Amino acid sequence: MERSLEATTMENTTSSCFLMERKALVKINRKEVMLAKLRKSCSCTPQKLKNFVMDFFPVLRWLPKYRCKEYIWGDIMSGLVIGIILVPQAIAYSLLAGLKPIYSLYTSFFANIIYFLMGTSRHVSVGIFSLISLMVGQVVDRELLLAGFDLNDDAPPALGDECYAIGIATALTFVAGVYQVLMGIFRLGFVSMYLSESVLDGFATGASLTILTAQVKYLFGIKIPRSQGHGMLVITWINIFRNISQANLCDVITSAICIVVLVTAKELGDKYKHKLKFPLPTELVVIAVATLVSHYGKLNEVYGSSVSGAIPTGFIPPKVPEFNLMLRVAVDALPLAIVSFVFTVSLSEMFAKKYAYTIRANQEMFAVGFCNIIPSFFHSFATSAALAKTLVKTSTGCQTQVSGVISAMVVLLVLLFLAPLFYSLQKCVLACIIIVSLRGALRKFRDVPARYHVNKMDTLVWVVTMSASALVSTEIGLLVGIVFSMLCIIVRTQRPRTALLGQIQDTNFYEDDLEYKNLSTVPKVKIFRFEAPLYYANRNYFLKSLYRLTNLDPNLEAARRKKYEKKEKQHLKKGNHRTVNGLGIGETTLQLVPKQIDFQALVVDCSSISFLDTTGVNTLKEILKDYKNLNISVLLACCNPSVIDSLKRGGYFGRDFECMQEMLFYSIHNAVLFAKDQNKLSDMLLPM
């Protein structure tokens, strides 16, 4: 009877715990591969040189194939519209950067030309961007204060102040561009992976609050110093409320009218965007009308309203950024380079996916890097792709970056001839344009409940990043967001979900017993699932969860048994057949095992364990040994090849892997069948 049962058990075991044959791994000589790549990269042939040049300047590939009749009108229309939008935005964003409007126009012009030559995206609009302008402006203001310049708005303009400010901006831009090119050379684009969507959204929203705060004083015409350092947002609002009595009535009325007009036009444009062939140039109309009113109403002379001032025409002679200033801003340039690159590449990938073509992320890094390096010699500051302008570009028929050249020509027209016409333009009008442009970022607050409903942890990352960016500083906020996001990932793997599984009725599948109804437990078998990699940081949590869910700590149970066995031997040695409690030895034996173990096999579902480190392997070896001392077998199921290799190297299966077939299974059900067969065999072999 015993032999027949044992034979049946072995047949079932053989059918359920077979081992799949692994493919032989081909060993790669990494040294030879590296040398081959080095020889290939160092070799120079005419064809390779041609390919290098055409890859570095993608315009050489797509421009000869340009379908003029099909593309030209869409590119011209989108280029004109973006150019018209660029002019007022460039002048407005100069307030954020703390620079004269002429430098913003230079930036918009050169960025469009260089990206036309080097960019791989057909649709993104690269140029001046509010967030980048803010980051540049914070560094410029800090260095001006350290150099002893007066940042008060009512201070008379100084030539040295302006020259030093643009010197700081160009040095910062040059270093940021060098960082981006170096990241492209060493293929460090993976850095952008650490900026999750929650971090970027929180960073953009927090920076938008900072931008909004910086513009409020222009809305009211209040003369307060530009705040610097940590807590700028709070300090600025305190100064605004302290000086609110000094508000300029002319600026307040102008601001109210401009905001109403701009918001109304934006809302109507969003509502009827499908009927409009191109967006309404509201900003340009508002600037033109406001400039005429200010000029003929003499608002600066009569009411003391702050105006843009003289904007020169033409180009200032190029100048090499100063090396000593580069050293001062080298640290500040790093977050600027990363943010600029991440926004550009993410937008490029988004629109490439939408319009079914591909971009080269590494070339995008080179493109945005040279969009910073080359213009820095021509008194320009840092640039990036901007979502709002890119959306307008695509909605007006953009097909290629020829539209960027058209936009650059519009800006060039302003630079050469029309710039002096903006002398009387009020700063409060520019502030209104900036604030209204922040609508999209500020609307993120409305999405918080929906975001919280989808993922609470991501919402927490968004809130922390946004708060740090707004209340501390933009650079610190970005760093805090990245670190906090990583900590959240670590916490998730340190305390992952754990569960005991039950069998779905009439199936070979198993699921969480607490999450699903009508699951049947497997007699004398516990199935434990751990939903994370097993490594040094979550080892203790793994063991605690296992002991808690199975209601058995093998170490405590083993220690308890040894203790009572020792006491029993002492009583027997003394010849005392009765215990201190007056019980007989037979009754005492019942007390020696206070807990009846209700399982003989433990199945560990490893399907969610993506990798094991040395600590993880040792942890599994530890529970294998501890449960074996209690006559409980430990079976592993659903291990991936990486985990199996780690277990082999760690000696989990023995020296020659002789026990591997009885310890490792490719499905939970196979492991359960094996455990049942083993339990039946052990029950039959027990003495009657």
Automatic annotation (TrEMBL):
Q: How does it sit in the membrane?
A: Multi-pass membrane protein
Tell me the Gene3D superfamilies matching this sequence: STAS domain
Q: Which InterPro entries match?
A: S04_transporter_CS, SLC26A/SulP_dom, SLC26A/SulP_fam, STAS_dom, STAS_dom_sf
Per the record, its GO cellular-component terms are: apical plasma membrane
Q: Tell me which residues make up the STAS domain.
A: 515-675
Main localisation: membrane
Protein name stated in the entry: Sulfate transporter
